């Protein structure tokens, strides 16, 4: 049996060239990254400049008060490193404090869910250690858009409309920021953010002090942590509405934000079909993709083809096993699984044996190293999670089911970066008036039960959904990623299978119809799961959907172009660079030559 052939038509070409390639979830960020490359900057200079632009042009998907995970591979390096921009829980964020407020989950919107913001410091660290440009030159693009304006993308306008009542009734600073005339702005309205422009100008001014470029960037990092973020913490310490319906004070303090800095960490890897696949550690969901690939490695090619009922079933069942392990064992607290135990041959073989002909309706985490898993609360009352383009799915309380941005860059020297910035969505918490942005809500991914690896723990990171990917095979490199909360790796997996097993070009693989499981514990408030649930794009075909349902999957059929937001860049075996971007949502673009 042969792999389902790719469609003859693609929404845009796989770009190829020798100079440099950029791909992201917004055309302006892609254009910014490419502009930096054209002026002699490296992939790292380009990624940082584009990332600060993403804060402005996709404010419903990320912001300066959010977080970041990236894989960074300098030219010639044997393997990438992880840029860790996920801040920890505040010192006063305890289970006892939350439950004392009558909560059984950390709210999905409001200052109680704020961690230490990590994205800005992480980007500045990348610029300091791997970039070549001065800070003022890198920030000039974002500063211009904040000061002079940019057309508001349709998704941001729609998000503001959904939370308009929240802004009117409870968050007046957000009303003033996003609805100065009292009405939600229309798409393509030119919006400016003078307050955030002032923040960027202050960072540029601080970055003029120091004898070396590194010292100047560190001076800007100190200004951010010592002056900017304490103002945000102080603002959120006032009572304000949260998604649970209560009025609460944030617990983030000036000491929390002054004391923390981003860092680099070792990546985790697994081998699949001759490629080394790299992910961040178990404080993210990234290793679940590695386990899924190892579960699938021995299967025949036709069993990995999601264009067939057999392949779709096999992939969904493997993902359910890997994500059950994620939900039981991943985190930054005591009791987390080691990547070595998760990916050990005997353990993966035992888990693979659970993949049967029928869809499992059970939550089935394993017992790596013989340890008994702690099962998180499994809620079914909220039903199937939405998955349509237009994410983040946000309700009037500000609750967000998760989405983000992504950017990939590779330059002519071979430097490559895959980065997933997120958090600090405009609907996360009230806008800090003097700063022009709000803080994120990553603590909603912690559990308010003791003893779980992802339990809320002061000064520990919440287990994040952010999960960029980087692959190498000899001189070949692929950097890719996707927004989508729990679906990020689930949407990357079909792209990888189609490229590495089916022989698709990157754009063919990204365009092809996709699917994902909803039989996992949702990482976002209200933390639901749907036993045997799956969601598939209608284009995947009646035959595949009917076969999945015959095997017991509860399939929700989404729109033809509703799922998947992958972008990617790379270098092939001949040395040519390439790039591809997601057409869904009509925002993502690739550029290069």
Description:
- The chain is α+β, with helices and mostly antiparallel strands.
- The protein has 18 helices and 21 strands.
- It starts with 14 loop residues before the first strand and ends with a strand.
- The longest helix is centred in the middle third of the chain and has 24 residues, at 213-236.
- The protein is globular and about 60 Å long.
- The strands form five sheets. Strands 1-20-19-15-14-11-10 form a seven-stranded antiparallel sheet. Strands 9-4-3-13-12-2-21 form a seven-stranded antiparallel sheet, with helices on one face.
- The model is unreliable at 383-402 (pLDDT under 50).
- Helices cover 33% and strands 15% of the residues.
- Helix 1 packs antiparallel against helix 2 (43-57), helix 4 packs antiparallel against helix 10 and helix 9 (194-206) packs antiparallel against helix 10 (213-236).
- Strand 17 (533-537), helix 18 (542-550) and strand 18 (554-558) form a beta-alpha-beta unit.
List its traits.
alpha+beta, seven-stranded antiparallel sheet, 18 helices, 33% helix
Note poorly predicted spans.
383-402
Number of strands: 21
Q: What level of helicity do the residues show? A: 25-40%
What fraction of the residues are assigned to beta strands by DSSP? Answer: 15-25%
Distance between the termini: 38 Å
Average pLDDT, all residues: 94
CA radius of gyration: 22 Å
Shape: globular
What does the largest sheet look like? 7 strands, antiparallel
Major sheet strand order: 1-20-19-15-14-11-10
Structural class of the secondary structure composition? alpha+beta
How many helices? The count is: 18
